[in-house]
Specification:
Blueprint (H helix, E strand, L loop, with lengths): L19 H6 L2 H26 L1 H20 L4 H13 L1 H13 L1 H16 L12 H5 L2 H12 L8 E6 L2 H13 L4 E6 L6 H15 L3 E7 L2 H4 L5 H7 L3 E5 L17 E5 L3 E5 L16 E3 L2 E6 L2 H12 L9 H4 L10 E7 L7 H12 L3 E5 L7 H12 L3 E7 L5 H8 L2 H6 L3 E5 L2 E3 L3 E4 L3 E5 L5 H6 L2 E7 L3 H13 L2 E3 L2 H5 L3 H11 L6
Parallel strand pairs: 2-3, 3-4, 7-13, 10-11, 11-12
Antiparallel strand pairs: 1-8, 2-5, 5-6, 6-8, 9-16, 10-14, 12-17, 14-15, 15-16
Helix pairs in contact: 3-4, 3-5, 4-5, 9-10, 15-16, 17-22
Length: 523
């Protein structure tokens, strides 16, 4: 009897196409998500059961909720966040109480806080290297001293001898990154929120494999949320087989934890300690317009060459070693590559695991110290009271405050929420434009032709409060003028938003925006 050696195809419902969603359900990621949903359902069922079965439990929960509201009102968190929690606890006392206690006492979250603190301690002696700018030199620059002093207190020293190259599009950054990766001799560190198979990532991965084969140390870290849509759960194992050290940050596991809310949203590339990249550009095809999901994708990035690179090297190693024993940091952090150049740079990051809102404070400083203008690009505009006050006050005191937003959104509900902030800003004199060719993903501020910051930090609660983020502050480097020119060029492709035009917007979109404002700090 003739033997059939043909390879069997998977069942139709597991193949690509209209049944593709079932492949996700039956994958490891799908199973994890189902288990998480089951646990959440059990918690909800317990609440319903207690509510229906025990009147005393309900009364006790109300008393506890009142006590909790008093506690929340007196803690040190942001007023908008406190108000949101008070609303949740007041409207749904039992469930709100359980949710708050779970969020604040979650073991997974506490373990992450400890791991992050330990990582900071292990690298403390490397925080301010000998190549950092001295306090005396900082004090000699009054208009720069404040932000430099502040970031220095947070563990982010100021550097000079660092050349800055600005990229007005993701395509420009990708081209230069490829060139620098090919020239790597010692090590390559990549940390990105999103990695997805395609033209961009494949071009990078081929180089990484070659370099690893040649003895170059290659490390890649990506956020665990990639396994939901972008990559398979075991993708990091494939990279390891190619000689690439790889880690997945906060991978999804089958237990409920607020730990999953703190994603690694950073984008960092460091090569040989000589070159570093950051900005909004992830490693996927839409970021270089090889595929267009929401029209033309406008993004930006910067490249540092020189002493400032050590700041991003340290950031990467701190995150890489969150749950690892101490390694020999010295070989990466004690060699400096000075590049004579103008101005100063301060690489910085922001962690959701402490009470310091570094990213927001950098933005607030640029707004509050502006003398002529502050120009902003951001994909989202979900603001707390401090940011609204700063923007409106700056506009009222005669500063040109102009914000560029997307015209084609990537998330419709979030876009409706963002637009709900337009009216108050416009009434105060803030100018808002939308990029008509498509989606703006750039996160940057530029002020007075001499100050700028480019990084990963959106103007929303997720970036400012919940995610790990990074950026670089620049003062007098010359790149600030290029950033301002790009902003002005982009403005020519934008539609100005007016109060009269805003009134003509769809009623349902306005309603959705207003409703979502109630829980914006928790989104």
């Amino acid at each position: 009897m003739k033997q059939d050696n043909t390879k069997k195809k998977p069942a139709k419902f597991l193949q690509k196409g209209k049944y593709g969603f079932l492949r996700v359900i039956f994958s490891r990621t799908g199973i994890i998500l189902i288990m998480l949903a089951v646990q959440f359902a059990l918690i909800t069922a317990a609440w319903v059961w207690l509510n229906n079965a025990f009147v005393y439990v309900w009364v006790a929960s109300i008393v506890l909720s009142v006590m909790l509201v008093v506690h929340i009102f007196n803690d040190e968190s942001n007023p908008v966040v406190k108000l949101t929690w008070i609303i949740v606890i007041t409207v749904i006392p039992v469930f709100g109480l359980m949710l708050y206690l779970f969020v604040k006492n979650d073991i997974g979250h506490r373990l992450m806080i400890k791991a992050y603190a330990d990582s900071q301690k292990r690298t403390k002696k490397f925080v301010k290297p000998s190549c950092a700018v001295t306090d005396k030199e900082i004090d000699a620059n009054p208009s720069f001293k404040g932000i430099s002093r502040y970031l220095g207190c947070e563990g982010f020293p100021t550097y000079k001898n660092t050349r800055v190259t600005y990229f007005p599009l993701g395509e420009d950054k990708h081209k230069e990154l490829i060139k620098r990766l090919k020239a790597a001799k010692k090590y390559i560190f990549l940390e990105y929120f999103i990695i997805e198979d395609g033209i961009m990532w494949d071009s990078i991965l081929n180089i990484l494999k070659e370099k690893a084969n040649d003895g170059v140390e290659v490390r890649v870290m990506y956020d665990g949320s990639n396994t939901v849509q972008k990559l398979s759960y075991g993708y990091h194992k494939k990279l390891k087989k190619a000689g690439i050290k790889c880690k997945m940050f906060a991978p999804f596991k089958p237990f409920v934890s607020t730990y999953y809310n703190n994603r690694d949203h950073r984008k960092i590339a460091v090569i040989d300690g000589k070159v570093a990249f950051t900005g909004g550009v992830n490693l996927a095809d839409e970021y270089i317009n090889e595929k267009q999901l929401y029209g033309h994708w406008k993004d930006t990035a910067v490249m540092l060459e020189g002493d400032g690179v050590i700041g991003f090297t340290l950031m990467f190693l701190q995150m890489w070693n969150l749950n690892e024993a101490d390694e020999s940091y010295g070989k990466y952090l004690t060699s400096y590559y000075s590049v004579p150049s103008d101005g100063y740079v301060i690489p910085y990051n922001d962690s959701p695991l402490d009470n310091d809102l570094v990213g927001e404070n950098v933005y607030l400083d640029m707004i509050n110290t502006a003398k002529d203008y502050v120009h902003i690009t951001t994909p989202y505009l979900i603001l707390d009271n401090e940011m609204i006050s700063a923007l409106t006050f700056a506009a009222k005191r005669g500063i040109d405050v102009t914000i560029i937003m997307p015209h084609i959104p990537d998330k419709k509900l979030i876009f409706d929420l963002s637009r709900s902030y337009y009216k108050r800003l416009l009434e105060s004199g803030v100018k808002i434009y939308e990029y008509t060719p498509g989606f703006v993903h750039a996160k940057m501020f530029v002020s007075d032709g001499i100050k700028a910051t480019v990084g990963t930090i959106n103007l929303d609660f997720r970036s400012l409060y919940h995610h790990f983020e990074c950026g670089v502050y620049m003062y007098g480097t010359g790149a600030e003028r290029e950033i301002e020119k790009d902003f002005c060029d982009t403005l020519k492709k934008c539609e100005k938003i007016t109060l009269s035009g805003l009134k003509k917007g769809k009623f349902i979109g306005k309603l959705v925006g207003k409703v979502l404002k109630l829980v914006a700090p928790l989104l």
